[in-house]
Amino acid sequence: MVLRILEENLPLDEVIFFDTGMEFDSIYHNRDKMKRLLAENKILFSELSSKNHFLFDMFVRPINYRDPQSKPYPIHYGYDWCGGRGIRWGTSGKLSAIMNHYKKYYPNEEITEYVGIATDELGRTRENNRIGVSKAYPLVDWGMTERLSYILLRSWMELG
Q: Which SUPFAM superfamilies does this chain map to (predicted)?
């Protein structure tokens, strides 16, 4: 998506990468390659991370039960599992880190987030409820499917 944004000359001031601490090596490889491209284009790259390491939240963090009366103990440790279909690990940590970044560096600016949801994933689009932040879905606007986006990314990773 970022490659096409650059190609289309859309406004892009900063790219934010959120590191859970447990990404696949290919994600880090892609990040490193993208950082070089962004630097060549004089676009700011920021890397954010969660307050806690992914494994701490998954296995160690004390969690209060919503209904402790029905449990033998009032807390359990770690998130255990992601909660089922449609729920992703680390989303709340990612979103709060990004919002804190916006507040710190862009306190009075209108932000446009480019969200990488493809045209065949429309069910994942969300109505925006954050003041000062608007969302754009360029892959949807361009009619790009998840498969086509993946093919183009693989080509870029292999061919440069």
A: Adenine nucleotide alpha hydrolases-like (SSF52402)
For the chain, strand residue ranges (E) read: 14-19, 44-49, 62-64, 75-77, 111-114, 133-136
What tokens does 156 get?
A: 């870029």
Q: What angle do CA 29, 159, 6 make, to 5 degrees?
A: 75
Q: In the chain, helix, strand, coil percent, each to 5?
A: 45, 15, 40
Closest CA to 53 of 19, 76, 25, 29: 19
pLDDT digits (tens, 9 = 90+) for 69-102: 888 888 888 776 655 555 566 677 888 899 999 9
